[in-house]
Amino acid sequence: RIDEGFIFTNTELEASDLYFKKYGYYKESCADDPEELRPLEGVVFGLYDRTNPSELLVEIASDHSGQVIVKDLPYGEYIIRELSALPGYILDDTLYYARIDAQGYHGLSR
């Protein structure tokens, strides 16, 4: 699952940064045990413009702490989708939608 605490910060006129963390349960462990939830490194995500969802804008991977950063995104509406899962984990096929404007982040929906 993606941590729903997406954080957008304004960095310059008409652009913002997007940060989020990827956490997961190892599929062989008890998914109901919150102690098993851990940050995941190397999960690949695709970022798409919501008005043209077939065109991949950028492919990004989570770092050692599970964090994904996309810098200087122009204002607009975006779709974030997990493209590949790590061995032993199940791909999250949820589409996440976000909007960025002069006020920053304006909600996240599935």
User: What order do the SSEs take from the amino end to the carboxyl end, as H and E?
Assistant: EEEEEEEEEE
Number of strands: 10
End-to-end CA span: 12 Å
Biggest sheet record: 5 strands, antiparallel
Poorly predicted runs are 7-12
| Class of secondary structure makeup | mainly beta
State the strand order across the main sheet. 6-5-8-9-10
The radius of gyration computed from the alpha-carbon positions, rounded to a whole number of angstroms, is 14 Å
What is the mean pLDDT? 79
How does the SSE layout of this entry go?
Blueprint: E1 7-12, E2 15-21, E3 23-24, E4 38-39, E5 44-49, E6 52-61, E7 67-74, E8 76-84, E9 95-101, E10 104-109
Antiparallel strand pairs: 1-2, 2-7, 3-4, 5-6, 5-8, 8-9, 9-10
